[in-house]
Amino acid sequence: MTSQELQSLKNKYDIIGNDPALNRALEIAVKVAPVDMTVLVSGESGVGKENIPRIIHQNSPRRRAKYFAINCGAIPEGTVDSELFGHEKGAFTGANEMRKGYFEEADGGTLFLDEVAELPLASQAKLLRVLQDGEFIRVGSSKVLKTDVRVIAATNVNLLNAVSKGKFRADLYYRLETVTINMPALRERPADINLLFRKFASDFSSKYGICKVSLTEDASILLKKYRWPGNIRQLKNVAEKISALESVKLSSGSDKCIIDAEVLMKYIPREEPNMLPATVQTQEKFEASEKEAIVRMLLQLKQEVDYLKDVLAEAGLTGAASSRHVPAIPQDLSGEAVQYDTRQEDPEEQELEDRTPEDLSLKALGQELIEKVLRKHGGNRKAAAAELGISERTLYRKLKK
Q1: Is residue 42 helix, strand or coil?
Q2: By percentage, how much of the chain surpasses pLDDT 90?
Q3: Closest CA to 297 of 377, 395, 391, 366
Q4: Is the pTM of this model over 0.85?
Q5: What kind and span of H or E run contains 161?
């Protein structure tokens, strides 16, 4: 596509941005439109995936036929088959008459299945049959019906992960991904963020008859730095909120409302780790279960090391004598000899001295773990000690300490 054709397409579908990844997605959509094949649109929630099936339908031979957009995640699980494939009269309670499903209604046209990963496995099997053979059966019927529908599916989850977890059929995945179009997240196209904000601010100014919100340079920088986990949808909501609360009615004096970074900060949510998009895997802190597992492993390792120290002590291989009886001195990765602390202390009373790079405070974590296990066993010290892998005597001493 030429740049002029691409811009004309954006204007037609009200798409804002010049990011190369966005342009590539639009170009692929136009290119596959005349070819009657299944298309899978992937991308996070709020990136504008719904534009792609509209572009494909309007540029395909089916453009004069019906187009339906279905949100699979919004349909109750018990009525999915009825909505997609229809039902016969009396098929279930409340089925007072025969009803055609979307696949029957869209015959000859295009069906956009958004959030396709939310379909139940049984419905996925029926969808696969429609894609392969064009056949389906209404709920409560045994008659096989035919349909000619082009399916465009969209998802905001990693379908391969869903397949590995048994939540999505592998055969349906490979049938859907004939052509995959990836819509970039807003944080991946930072140069478009201010363009979109200005567009939304202008729209709200015209809609509500208020001054257009304009950002200072520091506010524009702040807008770019935010991750926008809700993508374009979230940015639009923020622009509308600022326009409604900060702007004033249009007057002869001014037609702009200048917003600086300090004011903008009030409208940008504080970024939390659990607000990051699903596709971004990050771990700011250790979970409680992970802390317990780490402490448990370290306690077990400590017991094994103390056992070896006891064996060495019984064999008289402590202090300087160990160098005469042990043929090889272990070395670390740098080639330096590893120094073992062979003092004959109570092995179950020796505290861990090393700390992890994140300074996890193992002593505090150990105390927290002991309290948690005791609560779990209703104060039963024997059961708690068994789960912790230490003796009752050690547990008693730790509680006393």
Answers
A1: strand
A2: 58
A3: 366
A4: no
A5: helix 159-164
